[in-house]
Amino acid sequence: MAVKIRLKRRGRKKLSLFDVVIADSRAPRDGKFIEKIGTYNPNTDPATIHLEEEKALKWLMDGAQPTDTVRAMLSYRGVMLQKHLQVGVNKGALTQEEADKKLEAWKKEKEAAIQEKSDKIEKEKATAKKEKLAAEKKVSDERAEAILKKKAEAEKALAEEIKEGAEGEVAEEATEAAEEAAPQEAPTTEEPAAEEAKAEEPAAETEEVEQEEAPESSDEAEAKSGEKEKESEAEKPAPEEAKKEEEAPAAEEEAKKEEPAAEEKPEEEASVEKDAADEKPAEEKSEEDSASADASADKKEEPSKDK
Q1: How far, in Å, CA of 288 to CA of 183, rounded?
Q2: In a domain, 83, yes or no
Q3: Does the residue 17 lie in any domain?
Q4: CA–CA distance from 61 to each of 65, 71, 98, 235 (Å)?
Q5: pLDDT of residue 37
Q6: What pLDDT, on the 0 to 100 scale, is given for residue 177?
Q7: What is the pTM of this model?
Q8: Gap between the Cα atoms of 209 and 294, Å rounded
Q9: Which of 3, 27, 121, 299 could hold 31 in an S-S bridge, CB 3.0 to 4.6 Å?
Q10: Residue 214 lies in a domain
Q11: Which residue range forms the structural domain that includes residue 84?
Q12: Contact in structure between 226 and 244 (CB atoms under 8 Å)
């Protein structure tokens, strides 16, 4: 019967764990086994290996054949080197003490390498974590700055709106005050104009009345003057009263004739002035003609005097 050192799977989906077992090569992978000598967890970095090295060495020395994965694991833990040295001791190539010294030296070097690798991995994890935190902090700072900026802009916009609202209210109050003041000022300015208009209307009416009454007043004045004359004549002796009565109609007729004459006077004066202006050149011309006639007469008289 061929005996193998192989892995037996256990665990759940996407999180596999393995047991290192000694089993018959004809048995299924997860079936019956002879002995369990360790465990293997590939989910960690570096991989976690727990192995009973003495049992593994015994089975190797008895002829058990490890699989490729188990061989790598045995080499990683120094079991394959230990088997090689033990074969040399069994052949007499070297003593047990020398084999043990070589194994111890190799283990120290291997442990140092493993520790260095694990430290490196831890350091890389720490740096990655630090960088991740720095990136998250940067993002959070930028977000907080953006929020503060947005808040400041909102406050500024609100302040501007409040300011504009206050200015609008002040403007509205000013316009309302101006509108209220305008009707108050309008009557004050219109009242004197209205009073003047009212004063002008009676003045115009009085002028029209005076113009209408003017002819009547003249007639009345004439009538009154006539009455006064009659009264005065009545007080005088009878002959004088008769004379005055005779003269009164004549005076009235003369006054009536004088009124149209006074009205026609401006027209007559205008026509007289026009005729005078037309006759002036004619008069000048006649004066020139008379002067030339006198001169010719003087010339004729001189020869007669000489004779």
Answers
A1: 80
A2: yes
A3: yes
A4: 10, 14, 20, 197
A5: 93
A6: 79
A7: 0.44
A8: 66
A9: 27
A10: no
A11: 3-94
A12: no
